[in-house]
Each structure stands twice: as C-alpha cells, then as structure tokens.
Amino acid sequence: MRAFSYARAETPQAAAQAAEAPGTKFIAGGTNLLDLMKLDIEQPSRLIDLGPLDLRAVTDTPDGGLHVGALVTNTDLAAHPRVKADYAVLTRAIVAGASGQIRNKATTGGNLLQRARCPYFYDTNLPCNKRDPGSGCAALRGLSRTLAVVGTSDACIAQHPSDMAVALRVLDATVNTLKPDGTPRALTLDEFYRLPEDTPHLETTLEPGELITGVTLPPPVGGTHVYRKVRDRASYAFALVSVAAIVNGPDVRVAFGGVAPRPWRVRDAERAAAQASGEARADTLIDRAFEGARPTEQNAFKVPLLRRTVRAVLAQAAQEEQA
Amino acid sequence: MSEAVPARLPVTLTVNGAAHTLTVDPRVTLLDALRETLHLTGTKKGCDHGQCGACTVLLDGQRVLSCLTLAVMHDGQAVTTVEGLGTPEQLHPLQDAFIRHDGYQCGYCTPGQLCSSVGTLDEIARGVPSHVTAHLDDVTFSAEELRERLSGNICRCAAYPNIIAAVMDVHAGEGA
C-alpha cells in the first residue's frame, strides 16, 4: 500500500474543507477502499477517517419518512425496526449483498460510493478508462458477461455493484451532502450518479470535498416490497441482475441492479406497465426500460433474464398481496 | 519512486481484555497489528482482500474482517480474537463443539469460523435478518440461517457440514 497521511474528522464541515485538497479521500467502513488501495487502484495521499463523526443515527423525519446517517452500518440499517416494517425492500437488498462481516462494517455513505467490480478496473495491467482516463476499455471486446447492458458508453460498460442503492432508487431516496463551504445539498440518486459517457472516472456529481452526511427516505408508500437477486452462487456474490420492486395493485415501481452504471429506473416503463395486465406487465416494463440497451454478445442474456425475473417478482408480489 | 514514510501514530486497542498502546504506520491493518505487533497469530491472513473470512475477529462484539480495516481507525475499541474466546484448559463451547464434530481439517479457516460463529449467534439473537429469513420480524435459528450467515467464511477442506453441526450443537445447548 502506498504511503498516506491519516487524520480523524472532527466535524462534518471541517472534514469537507480538509478533503478539498487533491488526493484526499474519506474513509468510513473501509471495506472497499482498503481493498482498492492494496491493489494500487486507489492511491490517496491523505485519508480522513469519518469514524468520530456523529452520523450513526436513524431518525424519523417530520413528514413521516426516515433519515439515515451516513455512518449507519449496513447491518444496523437492515435490522432497524422501521426499515423492516416500512421499507422492507431496503432490508432485503442489503442482506442480499456481501457477507455478515462486511455488512457490520460497511456504511450507508460508503455503499453509495463503492467502485465498479469490472475485472478490467481491477486489473492494473490492462487499459481502463475508469481507472486511467483515456487508456481505453478492455472490457468492450473482453470478458463482459457480468457487465452493464444499458446506460453505457464506448468508454465504459461497468455496472454499479450496490444492492442497497437499487432499493434506495425504487424508494425515491435522496442523498444528503455537505459542501466544504457549509452548503447542504439533497440529490436524487439519478442526480447523484453520473452516466459514464466519455468521463467514466467521474462516477458522481459530488464536488471536491463534498461529504455525504446521510440518506433521506420519503414517507412509506405501502405495497408489497420485493428484492430479487440473480447471481452465479447462492450467497456472497454480486448480482448478474437484480430487481427491486414495490407493488401496489396495478401500480408497480421497479429499479434494476447489475445492468447499468447506476441503479436503473424508468418511470415511463412503470406507467406503461400499470396500463398492462397479466404477463404483458413484465414484458411492457422490460421492453420500455431497456429500449436503449446495447448488450455485448456475452451479456445479451441479461435482458431475457430480467424479463423472467420481473415475471417472478410480480408473481411473488401477487401471492404476498393475497396472503 | 521514493515515498515518504508516513508518521507513526499512537492507537490504544483493548485486545482480549488487555489494553495495548501501539505506535503504528497508518497503513497497518488491524490484522497485521494483531499478528505482527501483538504476536497474536491465531487470527489468520488468508486472501487479505475480504473474500475468505479467515481474518474475522470481534470488534466491540461484532464480527468484522480485520484485513479490511486499519488499526488506527479503532482507537479505544475492544477486539476479541480466537485467543480470547477460550483457553486450552477451558475451551469456548464452540471450540469444544468444533473438536467433537471435527469442524476443521487443515484448521486455517477455524479461527475465523469460530469468531464468525460467535458473532452470528449474537446477530440471530438480536433479530438481525439475513437473505434467507422468511419473515423479517421473526428471525429464528436454523441450519439454513447458519449456512447463509457463514457464507463469508471459506473452508477449502469443505468441513462445512461439521461446522454447521458444531454450531447447531452449541445453540441447542444454550437453548436447553
């Protein structure tokens, strides 16, 4: 691991100010960043440890929603009584990811910022526009079976790896941040994550030093919550595809994971699906949400797999609604 | 390429009940501090990338991967390693059950399996759900829950059935 200097954060704003300097990174759980530093993919010259900050609370908001501090661990968030009761898709998504040991350490803010799991991002011997801007993309003609099918560009086809973020997207969560000058911001996940275009190394719209302080969930919307993850082994693996759904009679909200550079959700597709019935609901939803898909030969299986997964999710929701 | 060696920093860890103040390079992981500085070599370095679970320890009572965290991040916190679970004269019930059920072969994964099992039993008791929990409000102990929850601990000898049997045994004893 390369040398870095280490400092403990004292206040959120002081941390944000200190992190404006180039080469500075925040560390919270560290479960992704330290792995990448050992592999020489991340090379921060300075780490600011957010551990001392008071961002570990889950609190009710005045409108009946929930605010989750950035340092709440994945385990604590998944096990929170209100999350289990009102935002079950979030609990289900979190416990579908990683291992118990990692969920005990990984944080809400860090989960949003975890980096791509593309094999070429991880292999420092090969070109990768995300790791080394302008070097090219080895994945385009390489092993792309696990990679994204939609929202990609000629510069990058990596998919976003988070399960938690897919559930947050279907829940219309907002990311709360603090800029170094003290200005707070609230960003939807679509505002928070950039698509790769020709700058895949820029993954979010966070400005230098800007600190994630928490995530806000709007008031509960009821319905049946389902998270279905399809992967190469039964546990401790990233998604090939995943579906986060909230089903309320004919209304269906769906976000997709494992298939795009950010959690993928298309409102028009949901509106069209609400007008359809039976098997046509899943087909309408997939056809509209993946209209612009550009899969590779190796990952073209993902779109039909999603179609079958959405059918299964809608069947499960119908069954649970009846129960 | 020349790189300045970063300043060493003090950190106090309570390991298996004893407080230790160390002065460490900030790059030192909790795993390396335990093994190389405190000479507690029970905790094993497997993959060093968070994929195998061999380095699992309990941090303030919760199981974590000691390879994916820095020692300096845990000032004032309590760490329990396999050496702190029991002694050769008085084994932890899980250590005893692992022996009776032959829950290990090469044994390299065993310290992580033991710490992970201790953490898992506590998580189930606290109602923390898992991927296989059918009803989020009703977290109960089962072999299926154990298999899912211990999936982050890899055993290349595939002693899994015996490990599950050992943890089942301890849970049955606790419940009796």
TrEMBL record, chain A:
InterPro entries: CO_DH_flav_C, CO_DH_flav_C_dom_sf, Diverse_Substr_Oxidored, FAD-bd_PCMH, FAD-bd_PCMH-like_sf, FAD-bd_PCMH_sub1, FAD-bd_PCMH_sub2, Mopterin_DH_FAD-bd. Signal peptide: none annotated. Pfam families: FAD_binding_5 (PF00941). Residues 1-222 form the FAD-binding PCMH-type domain. PANTHER family: ALDEHYDE OXIDOREDUCTASE FAD-BINDING SUBUNIT PAOB, XANTHINE DEHYDROGENASE SUBUNIT C-RELATED. This is Oxidoreductase. It comes from Deinococcus sedimenti. The lineage of its organism: Bacteria, Thermotogati, Deinococcota, Deinococci, Deinococcales.
